[in-house]
Amino acid sequence: MLMVFDALRRALGNDGPERLDEVQREIARLDEAIARRTRELHELRSRRLQTLFPDGPVPGSGEGRYPGLDPVNFEEDESQGWLISAATGIIDNFPGSEALLSQLDSTLAAFADANHLRVTERSPYAHLLAWSRDILERWDLERSAPLYLSNGKGSLVLGCKNPLIVLDRQALDALDSEEQRFLLAATLGHLFFGNLRLFAFYRLMGILDKLPSMTGAVTRGLGMIPGIGNTISRGFELVRTLNNQVVRKTNLVIGLRQHVLCDRLATLALGSPQPALRYLARTALGGQHALEPEVLEQLVDQGRALQRRYDAGEVDLNMLSVIGPGEAFAAWRAFKLSAWLEEERSQKLFEGYYVTRERLDEHRRADRKMEEAIGALETRLLELHKRQGKLREELQGLLARHEEASEEKPED
Known about the structure:
This protein has helices at about 1-10, 15-50, 80-95, 95-115, 125-140, 170-175, 175-195, 195-210, 215-220, 230-240, 240-270, 275-285, 295-310, 315-325, 330-340, 345-350, 355-365, 370-410, and strands spanning about 115-120, 145-150, 155-160, 165-170. By secondary structure, it is mainly alpha-helical. It has a four-stranded mixed β-sheet, with helices on both faces. A hairpin with a 5-residue loop joins strand 3 (about 155-160) and strand 4. It is globular.
């Protein structure tokens, strides 16, 4: 009787072999469409960059200083970039998201005051404040953030509207002064590249996941916020399913990608890659052998081999970040930094040839046709990726049900 019911369910649910073939064909078509539009977007972005690239060094650049430096100089052909748009859209549409993230900022600031030492001119490590100001000035970034020291809790950026920097004091003590400056610069780099709202929202979801018994109490407490509390509480129920997974995946993918960009940005500020590479070697190995040339060479080679496997589709860096979301990925980052340093565009950046914020804004106003074409492609890619994700989920369900049906089929 059960087998008859399952057969009827599959027939009514249109998940027979025909539907399986249909879904597989549709996924193949979407893969081709995504690849084609990704190439088109990459070509448009490259053309825009060539148009904007200055004929000479930017006035005022030199000695590690980059007036008007825009993140577009670090733009890459990122196949997972669509996730930023998807996750940002989820956060933007989350009821009361701005009030909620502001509340989170206040809570994280209070948490830092309760648990870490804030660096002041009178406290130990006061030199970090001068370094921080100098680094931000080198990137021509007006934004700043309070600086705290933790005791072995890792280095990270907390909050979004009013972010704060937490540096691991134990990690600092294991580094020389230039490596300390790199760690500080790489952490500050997240202020330059942004995505702080995404990371903060992910952190909020993570807090609730760790305390499932508290979720009801938390949402009830948020429901007391005047005016929008009940709206926020209802929003949690909307985000804790597929939307939560999108935010999670985006945090991991973009977080890992942004570490690579921050390594590059910090290297620009310091004017040399050696502090970065030494820091990554210490992170991977530590101990007295970490700074031996052979260790660093092996580290870069390991990262290069991993990249080859990634390019060949043998491994998924996104899956690796799921397994170890807090890991440093030191070998891969060492390779990515070494490879970037060999590119012509990195050499041009060191020499002061780059796109400024002002020049990019002027281009966007003057060449609206190109910007509209870029925006249209980004929107269409987002739609295609969403459709692809839904079909792949359906495909997994179809394959699982067909496998169950095969196992239930009676032997002759």
